[in-house]
Amino acid sequence: MPPRSGVRSRSRVPLRLTVTTLAASAALAALVQPVQATATPPSPDRALQRQLDGLVRTPGGPPGVIALLRQGDRTSVHRAGVADTRTGRPPRTTDHMRIASVAKAFSGAVALRLVDRDRLELDDTIGKLLPSLPTAWHRVTLRQLLNHTSGLPDFSTAPAFIDILREDPRHHFDSRRLLDFVADEGLLFPAGSKYQYSNSDNIAVALMAEAVTGEPYERLLAQLVYRPLDLRQTSLPQGYRLPRPYLHGYDVTPPAPPEDISEVLSASGVWASGGIVSTPKDLNAFVRAWAGGRDFLSEQTRRQQRTFIPGAASEPAGPGVNAGGLAIFRYTTRCGTVYGHTGNFPGYTQLAVGTADGKRSLTFSINTQTSKSLKPELLAKVRAVQEDFVCALLRR
Predict the structure, then answer these.
(1) Nearest alpha carbon to residue 2 among 151, 137, 195, 154
(2) For residue 273, which of 33, 95, 128, 202 is within the disulfide window of CB 3.0 to 4.6 Å?
(3) Prior bond to 190 cis, omega within 30?
(4) What is the longest distance spanned by two Cα atoms in the chain?
């Protein structure tokens, strides 16, 4: 999710829904034992573990990190640091967590599966399906919403939206009226003429899906994504509470100790653009299907999904060279190419990727937030470690 002006209220909490002014973290070196020098080269697994240990020791870095790799029927889990600084317990694959903008891949999945069922077309327009939205937006297509070339102004940067969060970070928004915050604005540029990541895009995608089916978006998620993929620990809440157990998310601002901000913001203010809660295990199963599962999308729709815009990056950028498709990004690393999505939300930064054949997948989760404007040095380090994990995923 893109950066926006932030304010603090209630225990120093930033009021941006994606990129905040959460600053750097106390290094939790005491929670991670240092690896002793050795005269022989470390094993691949040992090298990956050192990378994670280094992240949680980094000033301003996350209290904890968990990476889940699936290669065929084999699963390996790597973790460092803690899921909860109060108890000191490690992260687990069944911990709930905010997946942030990876939720955009879920709204993309709903839309493209409806395309496969001839309920939606990629050239359907806002004017056709959502005529009550501003006339200036009416020629924007579903395709342009999914690849962020729509030109829709971002509701989450609107001053009125930020003012509400300043007063009450847990404010319950009417998720289906989020676009009202920018309804008096025209397009930022002619639709289809350029790429610009916007949280408004996937709100409109979910509303289109509701318009053609007459079903609530939450029910469509269950019917088209959760049940087919057996995602039993994935949900789209409206409030600020997280299901237990959960990976705690932190504002890490040295010299203060990490501050738990897991339940500070209401998910209703991001909805289809960033409100989904999942676990590393469920998220890994989803991205395997989304990136390349044989039965998840038709071959024709998959080709449309993988029509990429060079240089179009997710937010935050993923490992390697990024390019943007329909609610999916291509990450070209030194070891090969994977497909998926990233996300960041107060307390969390996420990467979920899979291979084009759907046989290999990786989720990489840290429990603090970073982006190109928030701790960019940390983001550079995170992306480098993510690339090493992608290499491990592809070489085994």
Answers:
(1) 154
(2) 202
(3) no
(4) 68
Q: Which residues pair with 345 in a beta bridge?
A: 348
Q: How much is the pLDDT for 361? A: 98
pLDDT of residue 44: 77
Give the pLDDT confidence of 178-228 residue by residue, as tens digits.
999 999 999 999 999 999 999 999 999 999 999 999 999 999 999 999 999
Whether residue 233 contacts residue 140, with contact meaning beta carbons closer than 8 Å, is answered with no
Residue type, position 154, single letter: D
What's the angle, vertex CA 150, arms to CA 149 and CA 152, rounded to 5?
130
Say which residue the tokens 């905040």 belong to: 20
Length of the chain: 396
Tokens describing residue 274: 């960033």
How many angstroms from the chain centroid is the CA of residue 241? 18
Question: What CA–CA distance (Å, rounded) separates 295 from 328?
Answer: 17
> How far, in Å, CA of 23 to CA of 373, rounded?
11
Neighbouring residues of 260: CB distance < 8 A, sequence distance ≥ 6 = 85, 86, 248, 249, 250, 347
- Run of H or E residues at 305: helix 299-305
What pLDDT, on a 0 to 100 scale, did the predictor assign at position 14? 43
Residues 44 and 277 sit within 8 Å (Cβ to Cβ): no
Q: What's the token pair of residue 236?
A: 């789209």
Q: How many helices (H) and strands (E) does the chain have?
A: 11, 14
Phi first, then psi: give them for residue 269, nearest 5 degrees.
-80, -5
Query: In whole angstroms, what is the distance from residue 265 CA to residue 1 CA?
Result: 15
pTM: 0.89
